[in-house]
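RETRY 2/3 - previous attempt timed out on the joint model. Re-submitting the same 622-residue input unchanged.
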Amino acid sequence: MSLLDIRDLHVTYRVGGGGLPAVRGVDLTVHEGQTVGLAGESGCGKSTMAGAVLRLLPAGTTITGEVRLAGDDVLTMSWGKLRAVRWSAASIVFQGAMHALNPVRRIGTQIAEPILLHDAKATPKTALRRAGELLERVGVPAWRAQSYPHELSGGQRQRAMIAMALACSPKLIIADEPTTALDVMVQAQVLALLAEVVEEQRVGLLLISHDLSVLSASCDRIAVMYAGRVVEEGPGHELFTAPRHPYARALAAAFPVIGDPVSRRAPKGLPGDPPDPRELPPGCPFHPRCPDVVADCREVDVRLSAPDNGRRAACVHTGGVR
Amino acid sequence: MKTARSIAWARRRVALGAFWQGYRRDREGLFGLVVLVVFATVAIAAPLLADAEGLSLTKATGPRLAPPSLAYPFGTDEDGRSVLTEVIWGSRISLLVGLAATVISMVIGTLVGIGSGHFRGFGGGLLGRLTEWFLVIPYLPLAIVLATVFPPDVPRIIAVIIVIGVTSWSGTARLIRAQTLSIEERPYLERARALGGGHWHQMSRHILPNVMPLVLANTTLTVSIAILAETTLSFLGLGDPLRMSWGKILDNAYSGDVITSGAWWWALFPGLAVVLVVRAFNMCGRAIERVLDPRLRELA
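RETRY 2/3 succeeded.
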């Protein structure tokens, strides 16, 4: 059984009087010991997906489809069951650890929070001791449990967030842009730590990032999202080196190849902005920015093709389903 | 070996020391603190400083309406009681009522403020409207009405404390609500929800520690309002008739025709005591704010 199984997920935010469709029919599966990457620009629905898994989206948001965490449907769960499932079945490493930590409380007490909430046998003392062990586990000295968030470096704070995510030994960890705002060295260390956790504890990891190079280095599978849909899915390395969908190609090309003068002199970007989810263009939502646009693209709403060697893409050029 | 507890206490000592270092450099705050310490000492040591017999109408020994002299430094009232004795014993009631009412006011204000900021929808809206309702109601008439309708079998002093407490929380609630709304948007509250924390967990572990400095700074200001309110209610004859407070002395002086008899000392000294204590609490409150708020510290 898979850890996380998302089927035909639609999420519509309520904005003003109308609806804003942020996710429009996404399927995604994460297995034990597997790292799945979710890539895309800001506003494509990546973080909404993370929120939907633990039902953290604002009140008034319409969510349809199925989100199964270890077999249980999160979307129909009772409130009490949901609270019990949060963090013990799946935890989140938030982006921007500085802001996800309460500035006026010590690191140790904050890591102890989920332990005290979910383990009825835990006492403040044992929870604090466990928090110290978790900090050691992620490479932060245990005495740092006594520190306040501002006394830690950016890398240590992100490690503390990972320690907090591990506190209740969840089977699934969702990392929402865990390395944004960290310098490259620290970024590599944090990713290595996450990979180690996946390796040793056989957890499933859903890694969300806008940076395809980060994902390709650490993910077994990657899904690229655009305008609330997955437009390409495939094995991590392959998707980065030989993308099929023009959007995935543009994302991959945005990362310069070190030592290649061509990419240095002429960095490739993608003109334009993602479409307004309330006014999606007809046909393929990517067609106004697509370099390979043909007449069909303006009329046909292409869906993901049938798997071909584990790869799927939603483009008329690569056999996307109409 | 250093245990976690001893380290924590050492840190607290250091933090308190740093606070004191900042506070002692604040001349206004130091003055306010000295005044408060003097009044608190007087209130606690009242039985040593003045005989309680001096408050009794029948056992009063002094001449009627005698001006300040060596024997009666603050003069005497219509019944020959020493005004100094009355002021000393009155400080007990005035300070006690002021502090107790403040505790009630701060607890209600903090709870309502956090609740109205945290809960969206009907509950939060209700608490928010309740706060606004208490804000716009003229304070004095409400307090007078409440004090009048309070059950007579409740000791009068308790009634006054409760009346002041339940009428003076709305300003605090509005302040705490605003701060809560801003904290609600911080990512660590989303994190607290994500890790399965309920409303109580979010409010007690994350919002309360963040609004606490605001509550503390507001407390000293509320104390002065509460003392003034006690004086006002006693002056209007709604206080405890059996216990001497500063407002009660002023009420006696007023009904004893202090103006026409020219016995200025009867009203001046209790009035000065009220002004000094209220001002001292304000000075301390503002000094605490200056020391705790780094933005104000930069300006100093």
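Residues 4-227 of chain A form a domain with the Rossmann fold fold (CATH 3.40.50.300). Closing ticket.
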